[in-house]
Amino acid sequence: MRIGELSARTGASRRSLRYYEEQGLLVSSRSPSGQRHYEDEHVQRVLLVQAFLAAGMSSGTIAEMAPCMSAPSEERARRALEIMGRERARLSEAMDGLASARDALDHLIEDNHAYLARSANDEA
User: Fold this and answer.
1) pTM for this one?
2) Which of 20, 33, 117, 122 is the 20 to 30 Å CA partner of 88?
3) Residues near 27 by Cβ (< 8 Å), separated by ≥ 6?
4) Confidence class for position 39, pLDDT limits 50, 70, 90
5) ∠ at Cα 15 (12, 17), nearest 5°?
């Protein structure tokens, strides 16, 4: 598939796809005229990259994990495991923080509902 189809299937802009290639996150083959060509498995790769980016991982961090995903070796696997463990811990900490903020917000929502219910009863 060409870059436009990959863009349509993943929601990533053509510019983003070119950037992913520049960063080593995605590899395409080239036609004799230089056009990029992608395979079906590239769709999942782009979706994975997008998920990692949305989770706050840098393209550099993803690139450090990418060689192990596409061309595994023991050294790359060990390095990738270190990075993956670090990123997992970071994500878990962020998720815990978000859960705490959500719980506090839920408490404030309950307090406001209770206040409004008391106000309505006082006016009645």
Assistant:
1) 0.77
2) 20
3) 21, 70
4) very high
5) 55
